[in-house]
Amino acid sequence: MFRPRAWLVLAASIAAATPAFGKAARAWRGVAPGASAAVLIAAQKTVTDEEAAELARRATGGRVLSVKRAARDGRTLYRVKVLTRGGVVRSVFVDPQTGEVVE
After folding, report:
1. Contact at 8 Å (CB) between 101 and 51?
2. Could you report the per-residue pLDDT of 41-86, keeping only the tens digit for each?
């Protein structure tokens, strides 16, 4: 049948593809069957940490100090620490799927 080298190549190929399948599965979760291509593409788009920082800066008018992923209310969000114009440090949360700023 197969030689050991062929099995090794097959196993390595499957292992390399696994993270990509996991990300795609997470992106498609919650999308209705039969959804349009635009909806499916939008479901895969996520906000980067740089975009989250910019969204938080616009929402607060302050200076971004740091951006980290954090769990809140059972969801994974970006936690953006911002120094406001009044000199107060506050945390703003940004949804990585929608870009919505959650205060």
Report:
1. no
2. 555 568 898 999 999 999 999 999 999 999 888 888 999 999 999 9
CA distance 84 to 48: 22
Sheet holding 75-83, edge to edge: 63-72, 75-83, 89-94, 101-102
Query: What letter would DSSP give residue 84?
Result: -
CA distance 68 to 66: 7
Instruction: Compute the chain's Rg from CA coordinates.
Output: 20
- Protein fold of 49-102: Nuclear Transport Factor 2; Chain: A, (3.10.450)
Query: Rounded to an integer, what is the distance from CA 35 to the centroid of its chain?
Result: 21
Average pLDDT on 85-91 reads: 94
Domain edges within the chain: 4-44, 49-102
Which residues 6+ apart lie within 8 Å of 55 measured at CB? 47, 94, 99, 101
